[in-house]
Specification:
This protein is mostly helical. The strands form 2 sheets. The protein has a two-stranded antiparallel sheet. The protein has 24 helices and 4 strands. The longest helix has 36 residues.
Length: 506
């Protein structure tokens, strides 16, 4: 076990926990977590009372609707084929093209709805760690709507990740073997006896479970033969194993020989000690900091193996550890775009984001839900920040705090369209006037610029900032005080505070 944190439990430590094990929060949410005490606060995150179905799935993504839609499309294809018999080749090709475009338009719209649905769930959920783990698994077992093309399968996969947020890493890996979205993304359905596809076998070892150097090319080739025979019914979204397409001959994997199937390969992988070490390190680096000490990693690995790869107990040990609250951990991570956007909305107490903001902001900052760049997922850390994205963060904060006119300042380089998705609205958040400053900064608070600044520093940072920065905020507030400190001046002060390097860290 890792050495546990001390009995003391500060508001800043509670904020650190909420930032890392969720997406941050406003003063009320933070105060409620702090009031629980450290142990109970961690337990409330790992064992949330919010039900899985608290946010109903988009209607088109339910299993019942998916099957109904499949029957409708099947009948439409039958009728279209009949009609094409009376068409010329050119007319038939035009009809096919128009049918494809109709389907693509529908899928683009569903993709946008799926992205908005998940983002709003992150923003409004009472189970933030569950959503953070869903994002973690989405990045770990990365699939993209650009290749899968069927948003319904991505939403179903998203539900799978949420169901297994704190469960067995081993069981989840087995489930991913039979996941329709993953099959389409890594072309598993094309892997057949005599023609094995190594894509899934390689990624499951290199990226999902063991890491480089812990398997051989022979293991990959043999595992690929074991992963043959899995087929996806595109109409029902169900995956089955077809024995006729499976290579039933013996394979030798990790020195063991037998007529293995795909689930046998997963079992063999998790018999290797490196599987526990690989995921322990990845979870530590996601929630704490890069490169844990060998001693800490040994402890986590032993705990993970002892719990039979249950992630919940491992997370509990991490969040109760002394090292999690160390100077090396606190404010050492660059916020990912999703972390930045959800946290910013929470701290500004915006529960109904401006029209178009959710999708456009993701695209501009480089992390669009359901669209990781490749099978390795997103690059994290410093990869999130460059000259354009940092300026875009500042300007998006200006838009949220000050209104739609601030969008004109977003650099053109950040306004690119995302391939395969609908372009962002020409005017995002038309009429957006900003947060409710009467609630965030009551009028009596504005009578004292120093108290106003300290209140906002507490809201956005939960702790002190360097004196130089604090003094510049106070100086700005004093210069804007005038007869009445209006919402306009308050918005400008908030924007100034949010447009600092300190706010990019959590």
């Amino acid at each position: 076990m890792l050495p546990k944190a001390e009995n003391s439990w500060t508001l800043f430590e509670a904020a650190h926990l909420l930032n890392r094990a969720g997406f941050g929060g406003g003063p009320a949410e933070l105060a409620a977590l702090h009031a629980l005490g450290r142990t109970q606060a961690v337990e409330s995150l790992i064992s949330p009372i919010e039900p899985l179905d608290a946010f109903p799935l988009p209607v088109w993504s339910t299993e019942e609707q998916m099957l109904a839609d499949a029957l409708v499309r099947k009948e439409q294809r039958r009728l279209a084929q009949q009609a094409m018999r009376d068409l010329s080749p050119a007319e038939a090709e035009k009809a096919k093209r128009e049918a494809r475009q109709k389907i693509q338009k529908e899928e683009r719209q569903q993709g946008l709805e799926a992205q908005g649905w998940w983002f709003r769930r992150m923003l409004l959920t009472q189970a933030p760690l569950r959503e953070k783990m869903t994002l973690f698994w989405h990045d770990h077992f990365a699939t993209s709507i650009q290749k899968v093309r069927q948003p319904v399968l991505l939403v179903q996969q998203n539900h799978l990740f949420r169901q297994n947020a704190f469960g067995s890493f081993k069981d989840l890996t087995q489930a991913v073997l039979m996941d329709p979205a993953m099959m389409l993304y890594l072309d598993t359905q094309s892997s057949k006896k005599g023609h094995p596809n190594e894509n899934f076998a390689r990624e499951v070892m290199e990226l999902f479970t063991l890491g480089e150097g812990n398997y051989s090319e022979q293991d990959i080739r043999e595992a690929a033969r074991a992963f043959t025979g899995y087929q996806l019914n595109r109409e029902t979204g169900k995956v089955v194993h077809n024995p006729r397409q499976w290579d039933e001959t013996n394979k030798t994997i990790f020195g063991k020989t037998g007529p293995f199937k795909g689930d046998d390969v997963i079992r063999l992988i998790f018999e290797k000690p490196q599987a526990a070490r690989f995921m322990s390190k990845k979870l530590w680096e996601f929630f704490v900091y890069n490169k844990p000490s060998p001693v800490a990693l040994d402890s986590l690995t032993a705990s993970f193996q002892k719990s039979n790869f249950q992630t919940g107990p491992l997370l509990r040990e991490i969040f109760l550890s002394k090292e999690f609250y160390s100077e090396a951990s606190i404010r050492s991570q660059i916020k990912s775009p999703i972390q930045y956007l959800v946290g910013l909305l929470k701290q500004l107490e915006i529960t109904e984001p401006p029209i178009g903001f959710l999708i456009t902001a993701q695209q501009q900052l480089g992390q669009t839900l359901f669209m990781p760049p490749n099978v390795a997922g997103w690059d994290w850390g410093q990869a999130w920040i460059n000259t354009n994205t940092l300026l875009t963060r500042y300007n998006l904060a200006g838009f949220l705090t000050k209104g739609a006119g601030e969008l004109d300042k977003i650099p053109k380089e950040a306004q690119t369209k995302t391939p395969g998705m609908a372009p962002p609205p020409r005017i995002m958040g038309r009429g957006w006037q900003g947060p409710d400053y009467e609630k965030i900064t009551p009028r009596p608070l504005r009578e004292n610029p120093t108290e106003l600044v300290d209140s906002l520093i507490s809201r956005f940072f939960q702790n002190r900032v360097p004196d130089k920065a604090r003094n510049s905020f106070i100086e700005y507030a004093n210069s804007k005080q005038g007869v009445v400190f209006t919402n306009k001046e308050t918005a400008e002060l908030c924007h100034l505070i949010l447009s600092t390097p300190y706010y990019q860290l959590c």
